[in-house]
Write a structure and sequence with these properties.
Elements (H helix, E strand, L loop, with lengths): L8 H9 L2 H29 L1 E3 L8 H10 L3 E4 L13 E5 L5 E3 L3 E6 L5 E3 L8 H10 L3 E7 L9 E5 L5 E3 L3 E7 L4 E4 L7 H10 L3 E7 L9 E5 L3 E4 L3 E7 L4 E3 L9 H7 L6 E6 L17 E3 L4 E3 L9 E6 L2
Parallel strand pairs: 2-5, 7-10, 12-15
Antiparallel strand pairs: 1-4, 3-5, 6-9, 8-10, 11-14, 13-15, 16-18, 17-20, 19-20
């Protein structure tokens, strides 16, 4: 059997020279030093290397970084979050918490506030209903659709929102969306034969627009509706109705033919639009003119007959009868 190697002779001699009691004290001292070293190292590994983390919750980003860097710490950031209480870009939370253990010179992770969670109502007026609803949903807002007649917005497109565009709302808030059903249909009655004022008032009450054309008419008094376009039917509210309105009979000024001796000269006075003339033998024996009817310069309906009578001694002379032709 092989014997274990013995201590060097010199070391063995030194140990033997130390009294046994002293040797025991030396062994105890070495063991105590080793135990103290292990204890200190264990303390450092367990708690000695940690310090209390300073609290920076509620501070702005810049103020928090200044405090942490001043304490020898590194700063990290996690995903920002909305907060109803903490202002935007201020610290909502930290890891580790203020007063918690952190390795000296270690990293403290901060979560910054994005401010209150709000979403602005988008401008969806005149957009198709499906596109408007999708735009609201993408912003975490709920669309509540109703319908109404509107003469300006095409059917199926958005007329308005309540609240209006730009309003800031909480997540999942409701937005009332009014969608057009197109122009409201109204029943257009026949207005022919009515006075213009009454007809115009009727159209205004129905929400319709009016345009007017005026023309002479010998049988209908001025201001009477002669025709309408469109006629009696169902039309869209806000559309235009054209009324043809009588100006009454056309009137002209009767020319003065008194003192004119030759029929051709007299006839030329009636040679104008709306008049015609013919001659008939005169029974007068003197070269004079009788009082015409109607009187000269009178306003006379263009369609009504007018006879001017006179007599002349000139052969082939006659009176002129004028009428609308």
């Amino acid at each position: 059997m092989t014997k274990p190697p013995s201590a060097p002779p010199r070391l063995s001699a030194l140990l033997n020279a130390i009294p046994p009691q002293r040797r025991r004290l030396m062994v105890i001292a070495v063991i105590a030093v080793l135990a103290l070293f292990v204890a200190v190292f264990g303390w450092w590994l367990g708690a000695g290397r940690y310090v209390a983390a300073p609290s920076v919750v509620g501070l702005t980003k810049q103020a928090a970084e200044t405090r942490l860097h001043g304490g020898g710490f590194e700063v990290g950031y996690d995903t920002p979050q909305f907060s109803e209480k903490v202002a935007k870009d201020a610290v909502i939370s930290q890891d580790p918490d203020g007063g918690g253990d952190v390795v000296g010179g270690g990293t403290i992770t901060l979560v910054l506030s994005k401010g209150p969670e709000r979403y602005g109502v988008p401008n969806v007026v005149n957009q198709p209903q499906a596109a408007a609803v999708s735009a609201l949903q993408n912003l975490h807002l709920n669309a509540q659709v109703t319908q109404a007649y509107d003469s300006k917005i095409a059917a199926g497109n958005v007329v308005s929102t309540d609240p209006p565009a730009g309003t800031q709302l909480h997540r999942d808030s409701n937005v009332k969306v009014v969608v057009s059903k197109g122009a409201q249909p109204v029943q257009l009655p026949s207005l022919i034969g009515q006075g213009y004022s009454r007809a115009s008032s009727t159209l205004s009450d129905l929400g319709l627009k009016v345009t007017v054309k005026r023309e002479f008419n010998a049988t209908s008094p001025a201001g009477t509706v002669l025709a309408q376009d469109p006629g009696a039917s169902t039309v869209a509210k806000g559309s235009t109705v054209t009324l043809t309105v009588s100006k009454g009979p056309n009137v002209v000024t009767v020319p003065d033919v008194r003192g004119l001796s030759r029929p051709p000269t007299r006839a030329r006075r009636f040679d104008r639009p709306g008049w015609c003339h013919r001659s008939r033998p005169s029974r007068a024996a003197a070269d004079r003119s009788s009082t015409p009817h109607p009187r000269p310069a009178a306003r006379w309906p263009q369609a009504a007959p007018s006879i001017c009578t006179f007599s002349s001694l000139i052969r082939h002379s006659g009176a002129i009868s004028a009428a609308n032709c």
